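Archive maintenance. Older records in this collection stored only the sequence; we are now back-filling the structure field for every entry so that each record is complete. The fields below show one back-filled record exactly as it appears after the update. Entries are processed alphabetically, and FA complementation group D2 is next in the queue.

ARCHIVE ENTRY
Title: FA complementation group D2
Organism field: Falco tinnunculus
Length field: 1256
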Amino acid sequence: MAFQKKLCLALEKHPTYPGQFISGLESHIKDRNQFKNCLLPCTPVRTEGSRSAKLLSLSVCLTDLCFAFCCFSVGTFGTNFPRLIVNQFKWLDGLLDSQDLVKKLIQMVSVSPVPIQHDIITSLPEILEDSQQSEVARELSCLLKQGRRLTVPILDALSRLDLDAGLLAEVRQSAMTIVPSVKLEDLPVVVKFILHNVKAADAVEVISDLRKNLDLSSCVLPLQILGSQKKLKSQVQASSSMSQVTTSQNCVKLLFDVIKLAVRFQKDVSESWIKAIENSTSVSDHKVLDLIVLLLIHSTNTKNRKQTEKVLKSKIQLGCMPEQLMQNAFQNHSVVIKEFFPSILALAQTFLHSAHPAVVSFGSCMYKQAFAAFDSYCQQEVVTALVTHVCSGNETELDISLDVLTDLVMLHTSLLMRYATFVKVCIFLGKLNPCQIRKLFYILSTLAFSQRQEGSYIQDDMHMVIRKWLSSTVPNHKQMGVIEKMYLIEKQKGNLDLKLLVSPRWMGITEFVSKSLSVCPCSSFLFPVKSLYNLDEDESQGAIAINLLPLVSQSELGPTQFNFSLPSRVVSPMCLSPCFRLLRLYTGEQNSGSLEEIDALLGCPLYLTDLEVEGKLDSLSTQEREFLCSLLFYALNWFREVVNAFCQQQDAEMKGKVLTRLQNITELQNVLGKCLAGEHESFVHSGPVPAVKRKGLKKKTDGSKAGSADRSPADDSSEGNQPDAELSELEKTAAEREAGTPLAWLQSYRPYFRELDLEVFTVLHCGLLTKSVLDAEMHTEACEVVQLGPAELCFLLDDLCWKLEHVLTPGSTRRVPFPKASTDIGFSHLCQRSPKEVAMCVVKLLKPLCNHMENMHNYFQAVTQNRDVGDEPGVNIQEHQLMSFCYQQLLLTFRSLFAWNGFSRQENTDLLRSALQVLAERLKPGETEFLLLEELISDSFHYLLNFQQSVPSFYCAFILTQLLIAIAEKPMAGWKKEKMASLAKQFLCQSWVKPSGDREKGSQFNSALHTLLCVYLEHADNILKAIEEISSVGVPELINSAKDGCSSTYPTLSRQTFPVFFRVMMAQLESSVKSIPAGKPSDSSEYGRLFVEAFLKLAMPLLDYSFKKHRDDVQSLLKNLQLSTRQLHHMCGHSKIHQDIGLTNHVPLLKKSLEQFVYRVKAMLAFNHCQEAFWVGILKNRDLQGEEILSQASEGRHSGEEEEDSADSAAEVPAGRGRGGRSPGWGGGSPALTAASPQEPSGSGAGSSEEDAAAP
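Back-filled structure field:
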């Protein structure tokens, strides 16, 4: 700097300066090397410091010369002279004409090559003066829109300029417009500029625009074409493509690094990005970018993790984040997503705990994609997490984790084989149901026999565990061992050969069946033997029959009690149904589904005893009763397995026999119900009778093949007491409805019966069937019509509802420290199907179900019409109850299907459409194929709404309402809401009477009433008006009714149901009040002033003309208003004491309004010639509690003494002036006008009291 100063002084003192200096410099720099040296930094010889001098910095007069030389010397001799020249401008102390310099620089940008443009633009922030930054920023913004080659230097320059908010928004918008078309390598710079300059006020809007413009699909294009290029191109070309892919992945990684920095260090960016994703409603608006950013935020910001999880769950449930989107993210951007692996693992674990199936499926898909896309460490963590879920003890987690492992072992066997050591830990889990055992050992057996060395270790462990479980005395463990051994046989043989069944080892099955079908020996038993339920007309000597009573006798009572010869091998009746199932499966497999080889078993009789037990039970001993119950259980299980076997046979004769067997089942259930009803005291309260209890676990095994943990009847009956489990209350409702009937006692014994397969319900398709009766010469002798009666329909629908309740109703995912026994008892075959498969089966049954429900509708409409015309004796109460129960089960079936939350998943949309199409087809035949989903929902809603006039009971009305809500919620439209409110009110205003004439009541009625009343109030347009109507109309009618009466408007409101109405109305009233937003303290002052102003403007003119005729009313009105104005005056004092700025801001206007009120009252009195009744008093300053403000008390008294000196002047002082407030009073001038406050004396004059009656 000293050298520069000395040189400048010397040049200025020289007489020929500047002409000689410039000419000498021009001649000096004609030499390229000398010119280059002038542009380069120079270091002094002395090493006193690191000073550097630039020759061109000596004078600003060199500007024109440098520009001229720059234009002619671009790229000369390999030296970038323009760059060196432009760099000199950064170090100039001053510019003679900065405007001209900037203008020339901008001109050079338009004509220079790209490298020089780059240098000029990046140097502009150091060259410009502060006043020029806005102008240059606009020029650069325009230049940014024109071309894409200078994107990076322009944004770099703009980021270093100090711009105002308006210009910054304009420049940012220019950058936003080039996002869709910018080069991939420039994209991180553009996004960084946008996010770095975003403000909190417009962050959501900016990020929303960025989401729309930022598309990652262009980033993965090289990945998609690489596979085809490898086959067609040479190795060099393939290598070039791979390099392109690597560059693309690196650019995407840089992009998310930029976003990650913004999210970490800019709080507004993180919250605004979440908000922008949350505000997107359309499914098409959501991209892979959204999912990756949510994972990024979850991984980076701990404070936003809960919010991120909430948004992600919500989007998954709405179908905005399908699994395909996640698969694209993992497949195309695994390098980026791998950094968020801890968050992926945490989110997957959280999603598996969700009750929503879409969220659970998304979490399981995250596990599978992470295993397939990441390295070995991540794969090991995924397997460890899945094994942890399996061992957690939670049924839902266990099932889902086994499903994920099953998919992994099918798709990535070799990869999963590395971690087989972790998976084989699951072998030692003991509490698994059969379905879980099958999944687990499919996984283990696949790994064990995968032709790798590691598999031999798993084989050894499996053999050890199987030996242990087969030798166990616990039935559940023995069953597990059998299943596992079968999987090992299948893997060792490739496929299990069914011909093994005819080997000597399997001859026991057919031998057992032949013994069971032998003719009954002539021996004495506990009951006389009788052949029953024979469907075949041929009763010759060679006919077969099921020797059930002898088998039960030798099994239950032992061989020594009776004198009859026994076969060499004792056969247990417990094995009859399971062995028959195995035999028919084998036969069907060998004969392509045909069972003609064993069709004699469908119609053969059973050797039982006389089942006319009514009136005979009291004479039977305990042993005889127990024996009879066991015999009936075995007979029912045999018939149920027979129906399972032959239900899908297409032969008309077989179909007729299957329907007959269903009738036999209902008849046997009636008999068994009577027997259990006679034994209920010892059976229900003390547990099952010895014979049944001893066979309890075995019968349970017989009925479910699972042999899971014990489940007592008390456990089953207790499930119906859960208030929130609406579907589980079905059994309790049926028991109450059928009170005193035999079927009531069978509800707790469902798990003891053989499970009906889903294929059995295809019987619902059957209409009228003709069964041919043949004579001895096989000619048709007669025709008999067989049809599905109400009892058989009731039986099938009851079992179907029970199944749907188990598989389609989501269970609790809460982790239980000490879980109870498995709830899959009785559903072992059903649990092998997924909920979607079950839903598909039910959708196929919708047509016959609609037919049956329409039949029920017609039946009850006819009953109603007969009742209206007085044909009461024609009603069969028992038939009415049976048909009502069928109607109820039909509605429950529809509700279970359409309330299934699996329909919310995107992949089940077609299934939902198919189901709705069946319902809509009933209204518009042949017109539903091309209808939109919303139109199908509307038509289905109206179809089901037609059944409102025929529902026979309040519980059916309750189920119909819930069914309509389940359909209307897809989505809930305004007109549907009105329909739901109207329907619920109609049911509440309807009198519900049983066929016997009694009004419906009971706990189930109250529970349904509680829910239906909530539905009505929640869907009403004005909930407060609805509550007011019930309170003002229904309750007075109830009070004035008889003791056992009810409200005439609301017949469901009686003295027994009043507590239900009261609880619901109070709860809804409370929630409505809570939904009203809380007001601010300043609202009272603001709205109080507005009220006073409105009163002065609208009410006072009326009072002017009403005062003479209605003096007392006007006086009372003004007296009440005085109290309010006094409270407003206290509020002004409160704001002053507490220095509440929000309240203080309203005080001046409020004081003004109160002052106007004083004068307006005086004007009214003057208009009516009563001005002598007006007086003004001193009002003390008080707080909201009415306590006097002591700091102003003496001042108030002093003001009062001054007012007493001159009454005339005081009467004219307006309220609100001075330290104390003043207000009008009336009462001394006229007998009709009294003081507004009894504590204040009447009279005229000011200062007559400390407080007046109209204190503002």
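Update note: The CA atoms of residues 968 and 975 lie 10 Å apart. The chain has a mean pLDDT of 74.
Entry marked complete.
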